[in-house]
Structure to design on (221 residues):
């Protein structure tokens, strides 16, 4: 994203506000949106707790109540795969971006069979509207933005999820695996850290990289 100081940044689907607060601490003028009033309020409290401020806005991502060309950057994390109309969402992101402005997103990818088994098991911690992204969604983004790029993450490192299920005997409905990672330390992850280095290679191999857990996209208006 580069230097964020003085940049107007819109965080769509900001959730608990951790990303919004991080960007605000980097000097961005942040507007955090979410469909949940409680989440927006919590984000603003979190900002105050860390000695900064951000604007909160309760709104769905497809119809954001802000003027055209208001933002330098739009950040949208784990939200694209929840919306009913991705066309509306991409159109709205383009509308609110200034000319030359950029969007950045991260979402789950649809193709890994092991992760799809995990998704089918984790029925109590997932919502019914989830639709992990495919390459068709990347092509859709290219209809709205130029210089669309994408990178994939987590292939070999997904073995950590198998450990949680097969060795630690933690069912996906008991605890979200991506949250359990924060309970780990360098010692407990000593076997896993080298897998991230392997992923730096695997996620650059055409077709094979489609087995990744997450896809990061960026594009320019």
């Amino acid at each position: 994203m580069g230097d964020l100081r003085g940049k107007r940044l819109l965080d769509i689907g900001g959730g608990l506000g951790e990303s919004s607060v991080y960007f605000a601490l980097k000097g961005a003028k942040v507007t955090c949106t979410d469909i949940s009033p409680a989440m927006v309020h919590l984000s603003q409290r979190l900002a105050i707790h860390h000695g900064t401020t951000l604007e909160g806005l309760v709104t769905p991502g497809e119809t954001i109540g802000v003027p055209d060309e208001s933002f330098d950057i739009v950040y949208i994390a784990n939200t694209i795969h929840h919306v009913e109309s991705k066309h509306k969402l991409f159109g709205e992101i383009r509308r609110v971006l200034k000319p030359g402005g950029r969007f950045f997103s991260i979402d789950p990818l649809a193709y890994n069979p092991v992760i799809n088994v995990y998704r089918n098991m984790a029925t109590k911690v997932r919502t019914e509207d989830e639709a992990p992204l495919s390459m068709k969604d990347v092509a859709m983004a290219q209809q709205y933005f130029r210089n669309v790029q994408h990178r994939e993450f987590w292939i070999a490192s997904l073995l950590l999820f198998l450990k949680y299920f097969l060795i630690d005997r933690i069912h996906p409905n008991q605890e979200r695996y991506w949250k359990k990672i924060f309970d780990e330390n360098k010692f407990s992850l000593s076997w896993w850290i080298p897998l991230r280095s392997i992923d730096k290679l695997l996620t650059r191999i055409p077709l094979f990289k489609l087995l990744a857990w997450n896809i990061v996209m960026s594009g320019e208006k």
Remarks:
- The domain at 60-119+129-155+200-220 is CATH 3.40.50.150 (Rossmann fold).
- The first strand starts at residue 8 and ends at 12.
- The chain is about 35% helix and 20% strand.
- The longest helix spans residues 37-49.
